[in-house]
Inverse folding.
């Protein structure tokens, strides 16, 4: 259980960071975000994404545009708000710090 | 071939198979419930719905078909993720997502939609208080008796307590721990068994009006099932009554039959319906009559059992053979009934005169013959009978008549004689298959009349030899006495023998002596008349007044 819990916590933090990063590359549709996450082997189901996106949007980090679709209902295309960009930058910085911390703590035999 | 349903997802119309729809509906209900406590509930579920609509459109376009089937829905749900996946991702995610699934350690009050007699109130309460449902039901059943308070309470509770619509509700109702493992297991079960109870889902997001409508619909649905249940109870009750009644009659019939066979030749065959026929025929008729009654009773009993136990049916072979036997016995009984009827077709009669020695005072006492008159065959028969019935050879009073012999077959009338000597005219009559047979039957009887000085003794029955069958043999006695002759009739005689123009009771009333054992009559030119002693009557009346 402890392992599971830690894994969940690690993944959750990374997931939010990854989503913001993916959206940061440009306007994107939810299912495309899923596709990107799958490519990155961060396996999540779509259902999980919607509450997350809604929360990020309500926190002012994301904006979205309605785009007419040829297949089905109009789609929400998400983009980063200026606040979102700030947060992403901060997270970027934190991530780099974390990478350094982890690498130092775990140790890289090649560099020794 | 499958039934399809047209659904509308946020303005987009899809044809979906019924099975697939059930699963989708179930899924969406769970999703909505999951996000119910979230501030962004509507937005999230709309997003999910839109995405599902989009995926459906893609599937339909890709596969070039028109209808969403079960696999499509499962695939979409797989991509969208199950509730426990949501749970997994949202864990420890702040109060916004702390929904009702959180295990609080206590039970929630719901109506149990799966275990219900009427609305599931009782079983819901039972879960809530952690007792068995039967006790709650018993309590309600008892409270129904007290001016129906239970009914009102029940309906209020029914309206107020929400129905356990989803798996989560039922788990909460039962106080089961609502953790991931429990859900995972239950969810798989639910997906496979969803067909059975999909009607219970999807009532959550409906406005109040619809909820009311649902409640009323549900109310009448349960009312209907309640009445059909009580109808079943009624059927069972009828079954029990039928079973017991037919069983009772059958037992009585068998006992009667056993007694008839045991009582047999000696006792039974001079009793009324059996003295119509020869002994050997009697046995046949006895058995035929027995079967004629027993078979329908048996069938009725089987019908009763059939009503009581639904899966019990009378075997076809048994039923038809019983019917055949019954038809046979019916035809036997009809045959003999017709045959016996034909033996009553003709009647014959003859008369003979018995001279009565006139007495000097011209007074005649008419009495009942006290002594049992026995023929040679009868004494043989009666000796055996004595052993059974403990009867004496005296003629008893009418209220202790010693056997159930043929219907009353002696009658007397008293008429005026044209000559000075009295005479008794005995008119015998009988019936038979033809005139000769009828006449023989009439001749074969004998009537026992004795005169001792002024006492004329009448035997209460017409005797026939024991081997002769009952063919309505009758004797009508006409006592002819000259004018001015006094006739004193015993009350007992009137009790045992039908008397046409004599009424001892009436005459005693006229004389104000209702307790007298006999009455006095006088033959006049106009016929027999009661002799009223006016002086004596006046005296008695005076005495009665004094008494008062």
């Amino acid at each position: 259980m402890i392992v599971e819990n830690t894994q969940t916590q690690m993944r959750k933090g990374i997931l939010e960071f990854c989503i913001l990063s993916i959206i940061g590359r440009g306007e994107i549709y939810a299912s495309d975000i899923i596709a990107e996450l799958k490519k990155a082997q961060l396996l999540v189901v779509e259902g999980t994404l919607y509450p997350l996106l809604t929360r990020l949007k309500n926190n002012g980090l994301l904006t979205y545009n309605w785009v007419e679709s040829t297949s089905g209902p109009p789609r929400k295309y998400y983009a980063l708000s200026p606040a979102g960009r700030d947060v992403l930058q901060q997270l970027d910085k934190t991530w780099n710090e974390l990478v350094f911390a982890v690498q130092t703590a775990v140790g890289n035999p090649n560099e020794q | 071939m499958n039934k399809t349903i047209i659904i509308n997802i946020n303005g987009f119309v899809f044809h979906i198979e019924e099975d697939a729809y059930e699963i989708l509906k179930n899924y969406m209900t769970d999703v909505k419930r999951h996000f119910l406590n979230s501030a962004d509930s509507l937005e999230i579920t709309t997003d999910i719905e839109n995405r599902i609509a989009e995926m459906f459109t893609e599937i339909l376009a890709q596969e070039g078909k028109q209808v969403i089937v079960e696999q499509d829905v499962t695939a979409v749900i797989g991509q969208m993720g199950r509730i426990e996946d949501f749970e997994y991702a949202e864990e420890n995610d702040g109060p916004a997502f702390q929904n009702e699934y959180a295990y609080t350690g206590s039970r929630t009050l719901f109506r149990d939609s799966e275990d219900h007699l009427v609305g599931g109130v009782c079983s819901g309460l039972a879960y809530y208080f952690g007792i068995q449902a039967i006790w709650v039901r018993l309590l309600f059943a008892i409270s129904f008796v007290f001016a129906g308070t239970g009914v009102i309470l029940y309906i209020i509770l029914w309206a107020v307590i929400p129905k356990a619509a989803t798996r989560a509700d039922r788990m909460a109702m039962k106080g089961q721990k609502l953790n991931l493992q429990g859900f995972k297991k239950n969810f798989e079960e639910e997906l496979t068994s969803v067909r059975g109870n999909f009607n219970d889902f999807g009532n959550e997001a409906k406005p109040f009006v619809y909820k009311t409508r649902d409640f009323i619909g549900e109310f009448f649905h349960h009312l209907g099932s309640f009445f059909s249940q009580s109808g079943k109870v009624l059927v069972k009750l009828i079954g029990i009554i039928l079973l017991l009644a037919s069983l009772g009659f059958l037992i009585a019939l068998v006992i009667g039959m056993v007694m008839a066979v045991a009582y047999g030749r000696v006792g039974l065959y001079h009793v009324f319906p059996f003295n119509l026929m020869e002994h050997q025929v009697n046995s046949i008729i006895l058995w035929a009559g027995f079967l004629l009654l027993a078979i329908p009773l048996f069938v009725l009993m089987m019908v009763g059992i059939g009503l009581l136990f639904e899966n019990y049916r009378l075997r076809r072979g048994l039923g038809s053979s019983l019917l055949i036997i019954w038809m046979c016995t019916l035809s036997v009984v009809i045959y003999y009934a017709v045959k016996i009827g034909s033996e009553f077709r003709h009647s014959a009669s003859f008369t003979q005169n018995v001279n009565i020695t006139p007495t000097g005072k011209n007074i005649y006492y008419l009495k009942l013959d006290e002594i049992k008159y026995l023929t040679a065959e009868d004494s043989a028969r009666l000796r055996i009978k004595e052993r059974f019935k403990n009867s004496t050879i005296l003629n008893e009073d009418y209220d202790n008549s010693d056997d159930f012999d043929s219907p009353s077959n002696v009658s007397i009338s008293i008429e005026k004689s044209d000559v000075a000597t009295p005479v008794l005219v005995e008119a015998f009559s009988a019936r038979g298959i033809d005139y000769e047979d009828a006449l023989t039957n009439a001749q074969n009887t004998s009537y026992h009349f004795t005169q001792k000085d002024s006492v004329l003794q009448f035997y209460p029955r017409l005797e026939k030899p024991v081997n002769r069958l009952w063919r309505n043999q009758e004797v009508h006695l006409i006592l002819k006495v000259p004018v001015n002759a006094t006739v004193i009739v015993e009350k007992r005689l009137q009790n045992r023998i039908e008397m046409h123009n004599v009424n001892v009771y009436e005459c005693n009333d006229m004389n104000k002596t209702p307790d007298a054992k006999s009455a006095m009559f006088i033959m006049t030119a106009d016929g027999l008349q009661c002799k009223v002693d006016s002086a004596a009557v006046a005296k008695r009346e005076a005495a009665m007044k004094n008494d008062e």
